[in-house]
């Protein structure tokens, strides 16, 4: 039964694994999951962690990424995703959902939800996507208060508090480096450097900041898409691919719906669909059946939906 209805690994152990991964000298790869099912696939393929993007969560609700989601929505979805895998899950907590006291409550709620860590950013609330123009950042002292509140509120010292700075695009790289140092001094365990342009800027940040660093490899943004090998060689500790799985899925969904609309059938799409048998394999149908066939019994058949 272990690992069927929920993760076989306790949240505290996942947090310890996240800490160990950041200190391992090996790049920790965290693809974004827009659903628990995607998180199961991320784990099966062999990545080191799962990421829950605020932009993706907003989009999944049909909303733009401008700070409209609530702590309850974020914690609830994060809990669902974190529960289905033994991997640590890092979640986007935007600007902390308000004042420093709100950031403290966010850290507590996300820890209770089984997450391994969260990141807070230094944008003005309401925020916007980090790869759009027109961002504004709060004074460093205000962000330091957010971080100190979150750090003070956590109960598990292994719950990772990550500080994201958007200052590189508004104040320049030297100012972003100064902010990163101040955020680390405030207790941040990991620094998320948003919207750096290319290898040179990532290298400059790594050389200047002596704490674990996270890179954001999002598509169609301001950052060049560096490989995991490149980031590891530069010395980054973690990388997120926040919107990749949603973009892949939505591209396929749109193409499929348009074909149904024009052709009147999905029969030409079958070779582009996940087979029923593969879905059942990912969901471990057979293991559920074996657990107690007298209570819940069914036959898994091959083929397609």
In short:
This protein has 305 residues and is α/β, with parallel strands linked by helices.
Largest sheet entry: 8 strands, parallel
H/E series, N to C?
HEHEHHEHEHEHHEHEHEHHH
Structural class: alpha/beta
Distance between the termini: 27 Å
Which whole number gives the mean pLDDT?
93
Question: How are strands sequenced across the largest beta sheet?
Answer: 1-8-7-6-5-4-3-2
* Helix percentage range: 40-55%
| Alpha carbon gyration radius | 20 Å
- List how many beta strands DSSP finds: 8
Quote the beta fraction. Answer: 5-15%
Describe the SSE topology.
Elements: H1 11-22, E1 28-31, H2 36-45, E2 50-52, H3 54-60, H4 71-83, E3 89-92, H5 100-112, E4 117-121, H6 140-153, E5 160-165, H7 168-171, H8 173-185, E6 190-193, H9 199-208, E7 213-216, H10 228-234, E8 238-241, H11 244-263, H12 276-283, H13 285-291
Parallel strand pairs: 1-8, 2-3, 3-4, 4-5, 5-6, 6-7, 7-8
Helix pairs in contact: 5-6
Overview of the molecule:
This protein has 305 residues and is α/β, with parallel strands linked by helices. 45% of the residues lie in helices and 11% in strands. The protein is built from 13 helices and eight strands. It has helices spanning 11-22, 36-45, 54-60, 71-83, 100-112, 140-153, 168-171, 173-185, 199-208, 228-234, 244-263, 276-283, 285-291, and strands spanning 28-31, 50-52, 89-92, 117-121, 160-165, 190-193, 213-216, 238-241. Helix 5 (100-112) runs parallel beside helix 6 (140-153). The radius of gyration is 20 Å and the shape is globular. The relative contact order is 0.12. The mean pLDDT is 93.
């Amino acid at each position: 039964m272990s690992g069927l209805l929920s993760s076989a690994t306790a949240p505290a152990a996942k947090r310890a694994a996240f800490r160990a991964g950041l200190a391992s000298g090996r790049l920790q790869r965290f693809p974004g999951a827009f659903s628990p099912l995607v998180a199961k696939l991320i784990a099966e393929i062999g990545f080191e962690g799962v990421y829950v993007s605020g932009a993706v969560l907003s989009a999944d609700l049909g909303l733009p990424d401008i700070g409209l989601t609530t702590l309850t929505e974020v914690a609830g979805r994060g809990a669902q995703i974190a529960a289905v895998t033994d991997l640590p899950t890092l979640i986007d907590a935007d600007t902390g959902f308000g004042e420093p006291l709100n950031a403290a409550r966010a850290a507590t709620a996300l820890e209770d939800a089984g997450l391994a860590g969260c990141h807070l950013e230094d944008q003005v609330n309401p925020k916007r996507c980090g790869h759009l123009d027109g961002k504004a950042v709060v004074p460093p002292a205000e962000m330091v208060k957010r971080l100190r509140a979150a750090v003070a509120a956590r109960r598990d010292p292994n719950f990772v508090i990550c500080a994201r700075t958007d200052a590189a695009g508004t104040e320049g790289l030297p100012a972003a480096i100064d902010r990163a140092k101040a955020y680390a001094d405030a207790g941040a365990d990991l620094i998320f450097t948003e919207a750096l342009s290319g290898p040179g800027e990532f290298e400059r940040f790594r050389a200047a900041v002596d704490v674990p660093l996270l890179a954001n490899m999002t598509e169609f943004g301001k950052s060049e898409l560096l490989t995991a090998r490149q980031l590891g060689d530069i010395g980054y500790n973690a990388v997120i691919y926040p919107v990749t799985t949603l973009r892949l899925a939505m591209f396929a969904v749109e193409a499929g719906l348009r074909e149904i609309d024009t052709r009147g059938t999905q029969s030409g799409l079958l070779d582009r669909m996940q087979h029923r048998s593969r879905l059942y394999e990912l969901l471990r149908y057979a293991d559920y059946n074996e657990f107690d066939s007298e209570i819940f019994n069914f036959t898994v058949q091959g083929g397609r939906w």
